[in-house]
Amino acid sequence: MPGSEWIDAPWWPFAFMVLAGALPTHIWRWMGVAFGTRLDEDSEALRWVRAVATALVAAVVARLVLFPQGHLAELPTWMRLFAFLAGFAAYFAGGRRPIVGILFGQFVLAIELWWTFG
């Protein structure tokens, strides 16, 4: 079959990863750089994009808290919720800085894991 020597080449999987994986991602990044300066941050479209991104992050956090996997699943739900709420409170107490809430929530979760599993 013509062209099969490319597919059988040892470098082909790496080339395929670049073509099928990285290139489509980079096209959107390049477009963002090219058109990003022309966008109005208060436009309806960007507010919608921001809302969708926030909803996706909230869904991932809810899944981690309510339906975890691995060692986290062995903790009772109330412990996971407590760590989440402690991190949320630290976020507000720390001047609405995400890093404060994330680190404090992880600290509380680590203490709970250590307390439960020794």
UniProtKB/TrEMBL annotation:
Transmembrane helix in keyword set: yes
InterPro entries registered for this protein in UniProt: Brnchd-chn_aa_trnsp_AzlD
Segments traversing the membrane: 12-36, 48-66, 78-94, 99-117
Keyword Membrane: yes
Coiled coil: none
Keyword tags: Membrane, Transmembrane, Transmembrane helix
Top-level taxon of origin: Bacteria
Protein name as it appears in the record: Branched-chain amino acid transport protein (AzlD)
